[in-house]
Amino acid sequence: MARKGGMRGDARRNAMFVAPMALLAVLLVALPLIYVLGTSLVQTGEDFSLGATFTLDNYKRLLRADYLQVFLNSLQLALLTTLVSLLIGYPFGYCMARAGRRWKALLMMLVIIPFWTSALVRIYGWKILLQANGPINAVLRGLGLIDKNIKFLGSYGSVLLAMVYCMISMMILPCHSAVDKMDFTLVEAARDLGSRPWRAFLDVTLPLTMPGILAGCVLVFVPSVGIFYLSDIMGGGLVLVGNLIRDQLLKVRDWNTGSAMSMVLILITAGVYLVYRKSGGDDLGVF
Amino acid sequence: MAKRRKKRDLGRIASPVYLTLVLIVLYLPILMVVIYSFNSGRSISAWQGFTTNWYTRLFNNALMGDALRNSLVLAFLSAGFAGVIGTLGAIGLAHGHLRGGGFIESLATLPMMIPELVLGMAYLAVFTAVGFKLGMGALVLTHTTFCVPYVFINVKSRLIGMDPAIEEAARDLGASPMRVLRDITIPLILPAVVSGMMLAVAMSLDDVVISFFVTSAETTTLPLKIYTGLRSGGTPEINALSTLMLAAIFVIVGLSQLLRARSDRKLYASR
Amino acid sequence: MDEAMAEVLLSLRHISKNFGEGDVLQDVSLDVERGEFVTLLGASGCGKTTTLRIISGLETPDAGEVILNGQDMTDLPPESRPVNTVFQSYALFPHMNVEKNVAYGLRVRGMDKRAQAARVREMLELVQMSEYAGRMPAQLSGGQRQRIAIARALAPQPQLLLLDEPLGALDLQLRRQMQIELKRLQKKLGITFIYITHDQEEAINMSDRIAVMRGGRFEQLGTPEEIYDHPATRYVAQFIGRSTIFTGTVRSANGYSAVIENENGRFTVDSAHAEIREGEICDVCVRTERMRASRTPVEGFDLPATVREARYAGGHVLTYVTTRGGVEAVAEGVERMCDAPAAGDTVYLHWNPAQAAVIGGASHGA
Asked: CB A131 to CB B45 under 8 A?
């Protein structure tokens, strides 16, 4: 039974324990974000001094057609990444949850390991696989399916592949835990009441595992919007918000516009997260 | 009848086949990196024979040594700080009566939800503005910040899952609050602390974007080296380096899983 | 009761507590004598667990005092009170084996190692768990965990043992067995028990006194017999045992018995415990096992009823009837189905006047 109040002295102890984390959160999370917000609302020179006048020009500048196109590119890529991850990841999480006890632990480990390995390294592996005279072209040629090597790298497909590849664990884990938690006697009950397997899946399993699906979608979508180096490494000329911000900072050295772009990016991700939480989504912890 | 049985058999093998296929796609690129680290050719393009040459070259490369040392120091310092800060925070906030607790919690776990790029630039801007020296100090601070949520969430969920009566029983039997922390709470959350810190080590070892912004010219880390190497096309040396990192992460994750499985088995054997 | 037994160990004085959403406890007072077995009985949410937590120090009252052995303990933290608790969930330390669990209360008090070991051995023997000393809690069954929780709470020799629904998680058979063992243990050790349960049968079987709680107050405090035979309120009458309650107007009362009348008819009750006067309206509680249904009217009663159903209940027959005024009642008394009235028959309800109680007529604050 959870009860309020309780033992004396706890409140002071708890406050003391939380203090370092609170300090860190204020100094290294709140402060920098406020600073970016501030920078996005003024016009300054290159020295970052905040003495300049208030302006909304930095945001108005984002309405340029080519910038809007870049935001659209990012959103489209993130949406596609989420969709493909869902289509591949949900069945995977489902099968995993329905596997035997001992297999489950092993599968879990196999999914988690790539999750914690460097995305760079894994994408590098794809580069090796997909390069013009690499293994995949060699296999396809060997099977007589193609005459000329296909140029995979740099295509939109290769970027999408890299994105899905890096994000899919974020989809698999919540979907798995939702299916795993589900009471499968409910599906049996639906079958018993005359429902066909697919019908039972659509009527029972899918709605009951929806929280996991939503959590997975948020966990994939949010980082997908901001990621930029994957498309860089896969080549091709796709410009994403991330590239744009980086170039504003390091090439154009326009911190004000860069900050405005960052704020929009934060608003998009925070917005998605807030809508998710408001619609009753679970806490996105470590699955 | 026969048709139905056939369908059922198909269902039985479809799942393992699908799992295996996805896992192969998941691991194939990793395997490629490992295989090509033994390729004697100069470029990454074609297989030209086996060599361990690149590993020797890697070990003789002083710059690489520096990067490795920096990365390890950084990872262990930030995971250590995050371990202490996140655990204390979780203990303080787990039973949620602290005023403003919810706000602090959201703020502290925000780095998980914000694109790294935004955080990185924000750090660079603030550090430059207040005149904070970029380099190792800045790296440790920022890595600690984004590692805290992993420890915090892990430990907090363990604490919430714990029967509050266990701590109360210890008080009831005569233990002071500090004694309860030492005898009961900390031993019970230790597996969560350790697995959270291991995640933190892995996250720190993996970070490119934030490190990219807050590091100085003299301080480089392994992922940064890999990133610059990759952008210029990649060399077998990078392959060798990546293979070593992979090995390290396999060990860390393997250990943390093992630890978790063992403690779960011990505590919840009869459930 | 002799003088030594009547010594008050614990007093709760005017305890009030609320958690912000209405009162959980309102002005609760209770004196517990040394060696007594007192049960707090009530439905969930009645404040019994909060009362227990206030005694153990895990909760602080908003008003009132907790006095143990004449000393005010209201502001003492739980670790400084000579009171131990057996928790509903047992709350065994999952990372310590049985021996270390039982020794914990001794260890934090700094008892020397050898004395600790001896005391742990003694406790494990007491609960017949000696051979399990090296097991982890996860390796024990529910009943075994229960015993360890009791041994752990008894090890520091508390003056008062608090038990929060200790048998709630056990199945019926084990529950009955543990009830007997707990009572035996309490007699043997002479320790004062304050026991929480929502099971009225358990409370009646085990307690010296029962406090029936409802909405953060004591509805009635008394011996099991007093509470069963003379419920102070309708709530107590309905919560404990099965009974039928008739409300009626007193037609005549002479200090020993009273005749009461309502739309169902007329009946007689013993009024020795109640102060009732002619013309008053009162509730009368008749226990099911004391209600009789005969085929002919009985002296002093005029309560005709129609039989709805007669059902065999093992050793006796339950006769379900509806009275003239629409009250649904159950009567016992017939032993075999062949003697039972058939559905639709008219029967006449009656009882031994001495065994029916006028509610509110007894043991107020006794």
From this structure: yes
For C202-248, the pLDDT digits (tens) are: 999 999 999 999 999 999 999 999 999 888 898 999 888 888 999 88
Torsion angle defined by CA atoms of residues A217, A218, A219 and A223, in that order, rounded to the nearest 10 degrees: 110
The model's pLDDT over B194-253, given as tens digits with 9 standing for 90+, comes to: 888 988 888 888 888 899 899 988 888 888 888 887 777 667 777 888 888 778 777 877
Domains of chain C, with CATH numbers? 8-234 (3.40.50.300), 243-358 (2.40.50.140)
Residue C227: φ, ψ to 5°: -70, -35
The reported pLDDT for the residue numbered B84 is 97
CB A93 within 8 A of CB A173: yes
> Would you state the pLDDT for residue C4?
47
Each domain of chain B, given as residue ranges in start order, spans 61-268
Quick check: ipTM above 0.90?
A: no
CB contact under 8 Å between A10 and B177, yes or no, is yes
CA C183-C188-C193 angle, to 5 degrees, is 50
Stretch (H or E) spanning B159: helix B136-161
A225 at interface of B, judged by CB pairs closer than 8 A:
yes
Tokens encoding B261: 């499985």
Q: Please tell me the CATH code under which domain A61-278 is placed.
A: 1.10.3720.10
Chain C residue nearest residue A4, CA to CA? C19
Distances (CA, A) of B127 to A43, A45, A196: 19, 17, 62
B188/C91 Cβ within 8 A: no
Residue A287: closest CA among A155, A93, A37:
A93
- Region C65-90: mean pLDDT is 93
Could C83 and B165 be called an inter-chain contact, meaning their C-beta atoms sit closer than 8 Å? no
User: Which parts of chain B sit beneath pLDDT 70?
Assistant: 1-11, 42-46, 96, 233-234, 260, 263-271
Residue among A4, A7, A8 whose CB faces C19 most closely: A4
What phi and psi values does residue C232 have, to the nearest 5 degrees?
Answer: -80, -25
Q: Flag if B33 and A16 touch (Cβ within 8 Å).
A: no
- pLDDT reported for residue C2: 45
- Check residue A287 and give its pLDDT: 44
> What residues pair up with C266 in beta bridges, in sequence order?
C261, C302
Q: Name the residue ranges covered by the structural domains of chain A.
A: 61-278
Question: Taking CA atoms, what residue in B is nearest to C137?
Answer: B267
C79 → closest Cβ in B176, B187, B270: B176
C103, C154 contact by CB (below 8 A): no
* Whole-number pLDDT of residue A62: 85
**Chain A residues within an 8 Å CB radius of B170:** none
**Cβ pair C290, C300 in contact under 8 A:** no
DSSP string covering C174-185: HHHHHHHHHHHH
Q: Which amino acid is at B111?
A: P
- Asked whether the beta carbons of residue A7 and residue C19 sit closer than 8 angstroms, the reply is no
C contact residues 1-60, partner B, Cβ 8 Å cutoff: 56-58
Contact B266 C87 (CB under 8 A): no
Residues of A in contact with C58 (CB under 8 A): 6-7
**Contact between B166 and C94 using a beta-carbon 8 Å cutoff:** yes
Given a contact cutoff of 8 angstroms between Cβ atoms, the answer to whether C306 and C321 are in contact is yes
From the CA of C10, how many Å to the nearest CA of chain B? 17
Phi and psi angles of residue A203, each rounded to the nearest 5 degrees, phi first: -85, -30
Give the integer Cα–Cα distance in Å for C186 and C165.
Answer: 16
Is this structure's pTM higher than 0.95?
no
Identify all chain C residues contacting A5, using CB atoms and an 8 Å cutoff.
19, 59-60
Q: Note whether A5 contacts C: Cβ–Cβ < 8 A.
A: yes
Asked if CATH classification 3.30.559.10 holds for the domain at B61-268, the reply, yes or no, is no
CB pairs below 8 Å between B and C: how many? 80
B142 phi, psi to nearest 5 deg: -70, -40
Question: What pLDDT, on the 0 to 100 scale, is given for residue A92?
Answer: 93
